[in-house]
Design goal:
With 214 residues, this protein is mainly alpha-helical. It has helices spanning 5-31, 34-39, 43-72, 75-100, 110-134, 144-174, 183-194, 198-213. The longest helix is centred in the last third of the chain and has 31 residues, at 144-174.
């Protein structure tokens, strides 16, 4: 027995909402790490990462809102929301592509580089598919391939971002660690700085003797 179209659309919307929530939690955890503070030192890498995170949110939002609109309203409203979300996703894809072209944006991550251009191609395909399948006024089933492609592109981009952070972590481990002073060494250094200079004390004594003789 084939699943009902509305049930399928609501199921897809639930999956998209779950992926968005999980991604939000991951982003908040990442913002609290030393790796994020290190990435902020590179302006190009930080800008690309911000643009990429924004793109992932938008590509997950497309199947969420379009599926809900197609399940609850007439197909024309679903098409209108699909057009609006497609325009936003295309603009975001242009921005991520522009950020990728900046030197050092990908952080020497092959996964990000490959994913950027494959995701851009996927966006072009998913935007055109409903009109190729369903004509000028596509029915609800004509949007299903685009919805699934959007979910796949978002999942692939999430995986690429994770692999890029693994690459950045490996680079941090490979760098030689600079020795840091212990708390005891810091306290000893401060005591040494506060200790009076012997030459100064000798000069002070000689000056006091001269004053007393005079």
């Amino acid at each position: 027995m084939l699943i009902n179209l509305n049930e399928f659309l609501l199921g897809v919307a639930g999956i998209a909402a779950t992926l968005i929530g999980t991604f939000i939690v991951g982003v908040f955890f990442y913002l609290d790490t030393d790796l994020h503070r290190r990435m902020m030192t590179s302006d190009a890498a930080d800008r690309y990462l911000r643009s990429g995170v924004r793109w992932v949110f938008l590509i997950y939002a497309l199947p969420l809102f379009v599926s809900l609109a197609l399940a609850a309203f007439e197909p024309i409203w679903g098409a209108a929301i699909f057009i609006a979300m497609s325009v936003i996703v295309v603009l975001s894809s242009v921005d991520t592509g522009r950020q990728m072209l900046m030197r050092g944006a990908s952080g020497n991550s092959t996964a990000l580089l490959i994913n950027q251009w494959t995701s851009t191609a996927a966006v072009i395909v998913l935007v055109a598919l409903p009109w190729i399948i369903g004509g000028w006024v596509p029915p609800a089933p004509a949007f299903i391939p685009s919805i699934l492609l959007a979910l796949a592109a978002g999942f692939a981009s999430t995986a690429a971002l994770i692999m890029a952070q693994f690459d950045a972590t490996a680079a941090m481990v490979a760098e030689p660690e600079t020795p840091t002073a212990t708390s005891e060494e810091v306290r000893a250094s401060r005591r040494q700085q506060l200790r009076p200079n012997p030459s100064f004390r000798g000069s002070l004594r000689r000056w006091l003797r001269r004053r007393s003789r005079g």
